[in-house]
């Protein structure tokens, strides 16, 4: 038997190739339709689970659930993720948050909590990013420094306090509070209750005076000092708790 080249050719005929391509296209379309159908059904499924993540100390998961429940009590595909994020970030102790869908029916919330740095004014706090927030009075930690100033000056006052606190930490003038009023006047109070009046001058320019001549002159009488007035080009003035006693002691030297 003689075999020809045509008999050895195993390549599919044009018709067979068309049939194979057609079958592949049908399978692909079927998969796409199935996937679309599953996605459509999934978006119509009610939210079944709320997953909250984060290292929470002062934020309560019950508070997060309370603000989110009205927003997620709907079909999975109808979630407004931005509205949910804003609701969580409106809670006083929330620094920032993210909200996302997790298929098939879970809402995942990640929360970063604020870290308190200082009290601000009468009722608020500053976090470590110098952003003010107002928690309930019972949630305000003890022992925080007291800062205050005009609206919009939070970062300036906080930064100034950080610098002064570091420079004066090991002196008789370690700081507990710092204030800037509407006129730009700076005033501070030490941990021992001594007032420091800086005026409108940059308080850091008075550090050398406090650590030098003021501390040398007052170190043995700090318990008698009411305030130190640093609003002088050269030198300082002292306000005594008992001016009469201070005068008598001065005359007796």
Describe this structure in words.
The chain is an alpha/beta fold. Residues 1-9 and 26-42 have low confidence and may be disordered. The strands form 2 sheets. It has a 9-stranded mixed beta sheet, covered by helices on one side. Helix 3 (61-72) packs antiparallel against helix 4 (81-89). Helices cover 36% and strands 24% of the residues. Keywords: Cell cycle, Cell division, Cell inner membrane, Cell membrane, Membrane, Transmembrane, Transmembrane helix.
What descriptive keywords fit this protein?
alpha/beta, 253 residues, Ubiquitin-like (UB roll), disordered N terminus, single chain, 9-stranded mixed sheet, 3-stranded mixed sheet, Rossmann fold, 7 helices
Question: What would a concise description of this structure say?
Answer:
The chain has 253 residues and is α/β, with parallel strands linked by helices. The protein is 36% helix and 24% strand. The longest helix is centred in the first third of the chain and has 30 residues, at 14-43.
